[in-house]
Amino acid sequence: MSRLSFLLGLIIAATTFRVVVNGSESGLEIYELKKGDFSLKVTNFGARIMSVVLPDKNGKPADIVLGYDSVKDYLNDTAYFGAVVGRVANRIGGAQFTLNGVHYKLDANEKQNMLHGGKKGFSQLIWKVEEYVKDDANPFIVFAYYSLDGEEGFPGNLLVRVSYALLEPYKLRVIMEAEALNKATPVNLAQHSYWNLGGHNSGDVLSDEVQIFASHFTPVNNQLIPTGKISPVKGTPYDFLKPHTIGSQINQLPSGFDINYALDGGGDEDNDMKVAVIAHSKKTGIGMKISTSAPGLQFYTANHLKDVTGKSGYVYQAHAAYCFETQGFPDSVNHPNFPSQIVNPGDVYTHYILYEFKTKHE
Question: According to the annotation, is 90 in a ligand binding site?
Fold first, then answer.
């Protein structure tokens, strides 16, 4: 397929499937990738991860992401379970920014601010499946979306692709790409899965051990908008340079962790992969290492989950999971000292993530 015909197909898809009305939109699908006893389920609604299953220390299959059994249940989801969020993930203060002398007012969906791309961000759309290869040594799927100029207030047409691939052994690779076609625009895509390495139905994650490879973080105000400072983690509850349990420090914060880290080795134009975080659950013996090309990592301990009925009727509560969202810094469009998220026409934004899982037999 030529790039032009593919682009035209995405334009048709965008105008046909962009809005889901009353949960009745057709075209919702589930796709599965399997590699031995390692499997991934995704949906074209929000290019979301629905499940990640691998054996625990006793050889029993464990599903380690929160979510729902049915795709339709995601239509009313407000937690962004498993979604690709954008055009700009995280928060933009005042839902506005100025670029090349032009002031842009965005769709505010969290008080006066924008969160995860607005009310109808990428997580709320049906994506086009560009490729789906199940019978391969490394099975993969590629989702695509054509974002129109002015969507949620953002400038320019944007061609977006997200691919998921299973690699050996127990590795999940995610590649997110976006090409600005006619105007400069901010782009910051993030994968918003809620991880519980003890199993999605195992309760809270406070006993899980975490190590975050970041010496600095970006402090925020009472609306979780960065102040513009980049501060050392030393002497704060955000210090995970040495591995320790989440529960050992979470009580030092009002409701839990929800903060962006400036990853060590990250930079404005640094596309080299670096280790962002390592986590481990004693419940299952499952460990996870995340490497990324992004400069930042949002660590969020599901502070706002309350009585959410998920898979198999299990009810999720606060701290039932954690999100490790590799990303650009929040509100970077309003902080020149932060790594830039601006993509100029003809340039391609790229964001690589590698999840590596291991089971420790104890």
Answer: yes
